[in-house]
Task: structure prediction
Amino acid sequence: MSEYTIKTVHSKAYRIFYIFMRSVIGFLLKTIYRIELKGIEKVPSKGGFILCSNHQSYIDPVFIGLLFPRYLYFMAKAELFKHRALAAIITFFNAFPVSRGAFDREAIRQSIKILEAGEIVGIFPEGTRATDGNIKEGQKGIGLISVLSKSPIIPVAISGSNMIIQKPHKRLYFPKVKIAYGEMIDTLEIIKEYGSKNATGIIVEQTMASIKKLYNSIKI
Result:
């Protein structure tokens, strides 16, 4: 993949337009899907961390990102950036590419850069969608990024988004969508106790366990 640069410092014009777009689209989403947010007050107002969520639908980054109180830099599959119009839109909303099925050093480097700037990286640790509502195993990438950047993790679960498009019906549905945020996982304590090498897997396990617990509390 060619090198991709993402901005962690934005102009005043960008910030105004971003907030406007987020407010308008966020309001529409809340109205149409009767979105219920739980635990959003647990999100710190400053400082970098990794936001890890289960993944049910292509629209999950939209639901989470546009109803989030801060800038959120989501990893998005590299294939999406091959379409110029779509790439422009998701880049505006701070997405950056990751190659699935491979060890993507560039995506890891970008993630660490974002976290060191005090911003938030959003990751779907399952690596792919689980449209049946079941949560898959987490990939080791989140543990590696957390260890290398020494960043904490906030787990989040989304429920209902997998029912928006139901095969084989060629139509949209409008289910209620719920999003729940959990307590921050202090990964530094895990690293201190188990060492960097062993901490990677333990961080993944604790993160996925937290996501599953949150999901079961809001499961539709």
Q: What stands out?
A: The chain has one domain: 12-218. The longest helix spans residues 187-218.
